[in-house]
Amino acid sequence: MEKASMYIFGMSCAGCVASVKMALEDVPGVKHAAVDLEQCMAVVEYEAPATVEQLEMAVKEAGFTVEK
């Protein structure tokens, strides 16, 4: 199992956190996503077929900005 951490910008409330978490957990292969509003960070545990690029794209498609 792999683990990825990413900074996510544009989150301002619990609804944003829920949107990011749902977007990440909808990526096939993601086992768990923890999103922290105060730290502007997500930590994702995943395995194939998920990739870091897919995780980043899912967050961007949800309307947020990602930095590694």
UniProtKB/TrEMBL annotation:
Xref: InterPro entries: Cu-bd, Heavy-metal-associated_CS, HMA_dom, HMA_dom_sf
Pfam family, one: HMA
A single BP term in Gene Ontology: copper ion transport
Record key words, sorted: Metal-binding
UniProt GO MF annotations: copper ion binding
Protein's UniProt keywords contain Metal-binding: yes
Domain HMA: 2-67
Identification of the protein by name: Heavy metal transport/detoxification protein
